[in-house]
Write a structure and sequence with these properties.
Strand order of the largest sheet: 10-9-13-14-1-15
Structural class: alpha/beta
CATH superfamily of the largest domain: LarA, N-terminal domain
Shape: globular
Number of helices: 14
Oligomer: single chain
CATH class of the largest domain: Alpha Beta
CATH topology of the largest domain: Rossmann fold
CATH architecture of the largest domain: 3-Layer(aba) Sandwich
């Protein structure tokens, strides 16, 4: 069956990139005067997570530099729950893949899983903190503020969530998600976060916001006293900058890669319009997506395939690439199984797409609305099918970069990605 012709399209977003990241961080931290909170020579534990944050090595190196300049002895510790297969070595490895090593950032990496209890919240939730961080003189958080893939609230992902869940390591993350299943994750994030603040160990943090181009667009030093308030305000801005699939409806969304470096859910649920229970189109402000075809797992996810279950179909090669140990650990920790259910699968892209195109209610397959993206974090360059041309012309942010062309496949029946205008996708 012939698929519709395709167009290479550019989605133009405002560019809010900070020109000199290191300079901005030093200015922010000096103005906040965090160094005055500790005696010279104090040990500062810097919490770093596992998300795909742009310029993370540059950011962490600048934060380390500030604390050294202030006469302190900083070290890095992973704040990432069950990621890295919930092992100390695995979590240090995750940081290393982002360029966070002692040689690169100028501070030792202390990765271990032992935690200290911080007592219970009013809801009865026991809070925990990484023992190495607890035994330091103060904890400083480095994290991105953004929407969460599991729920909508005034506080979602960011410094508060890192403090509430990441600092508790695997022991805390599993417990918190269990309570979150009953009480709601925002409630757990707030109450556990307040309990962690009550320990007196948190100094504050550096909030990172990215624009729709995945550029570092805002860096804000946040003292612990203002953290909850600023988290809410920064989330409003992050959502305003959020990129989206630029049409109101698509029959098929082709996604080249999912992975933990792209989204905590593998694919950002608020881009693909699914939730962690696998429900279709639950987010009213997100375009309606009828079917999702996921072609692969990011190599930077190292076999953790969480999120592939949100797809309606996958190729056999994706299943072959899964490392089920970290994938299962991640899903069990989050009490979420929909993201690791095995979808229908066929040997090639051609078989998957032709099978899927026949299920979207179009009598003429050439009318199927297709949007093809690299991943849910990179939406500036897309491939869209010719039936979407009227929508493209109505959107002033969209620019067509090619004449219509036919989808081509290699000898194995897989999509060729050397498209007009240069390579696209995997």
């Amino acid at each position: 069956m012939p698929l519709p012709r395709l167009l290479l399209v550019r989605q133009h977003f405002a560019d809010d990139a900070i020109p000199n990241i290191s300079e901005e961080i030093h200015g922010q931290l000096r103005a906040a005067n965090f160094g005055a909170r500790l005696a010279p020579g104090a040990r500062v534990a810097i919490a770093v997570g596992s998300r795909g944050i742009a310029n993370l090595d540059v950011i962490v190196r600048a934060v380390v530099g500030y604390w050294k300049e202030s006469g302190m002895r900083p070290f890095i510790f992973p704040a990432m729950g069950s990621h890295g297969a919930a092992t100390a070595e695995g979590q240090a490895g995750v940081l290393a893949h982002y360029g966070i090593t002692e040689d690169q950032v100028g501070a030792p990496i202390v990765s271990q899983l032992e935690v200290v209890s911080l007592g219970k919240t009013g809801d009865g939730i026991e809070a925990f903190m990484d023992r190495a961080a607890f035994e330091s003189d103060g904890v400083f958080l480095v994290g991105r503020v953004k929407w969460h893939t599991d729920f909508a609230g005034k506080i979602e992902s960011g410094l508060y969530k890192m403090m509430a869940i990441g600092l508790g390591k695997f022991a805390g993350a599993k417990r918190y998600h269990t309570y979150g299943y009953r009480l709601g994750l925002e409630t757990v994030i707030r109450t556990v976060g307040r309990q962690v603040i009550g320990s007196g160990k948190i100094l504050g943090g550096l909030a990172i916001l990215e624009d729709a181009n995945h550029n570092t667009a805002r860096l804000e030093a946040v003292p612990v006293e203002m953290m909850e308030q600023r988290e809410e305000q920064n989330l409003v801005l992050a959502k305003r900058w959020m990129p989206r699939v630029p049409v109101p409806h698509a029959d098929i969304l082709i996604v080249d890669e999912a992975g933990k470096t792209i989204s905590g859910a593998g694919m950002d649920t608020k881009i693909i319009n699914r939730n962690v229970a696998g429900h279709y189109n639950p987010w009213p402000e997100t375009p309606i997506i009828e079917r999702i075809y996921l072609r692969g797992i990011s190599p930077l996810s190292y076999g953790n395939a969480v999120g592939f279950g949100f797809a309606d179909m996958v190729p056999d090669r994706l299943l072959d690439a899964i490392d089920w140990t970290p994938t299962r650990i991640n899903a069990l920790t989050a009490s979420s199984f929909a993201g690791i259910k095995i979808p229908p699968h066929f040997p090639s892209d051609r078989q998957c797409l032709e099978t899927m195109a026949a299920t979207v209610g179009r009598l003429d397959i050439s009318e199927v609305e297709i949007v093809w993206i690299r991943n849910t974090m990179e939406l500036g360059r897309l491939v869209m099918s010719e039936p979407l041309l009227p929508e493209i012309r109505r959107n002033p942010r969209l620019e067509v970069l090619s004449d219509p062309f036919d989808a081509t496949f290699d000898e194995q029946g897989n999509l060729k990605v050397d498209l007009p205008g240069g390579p696209f996708g995997l």
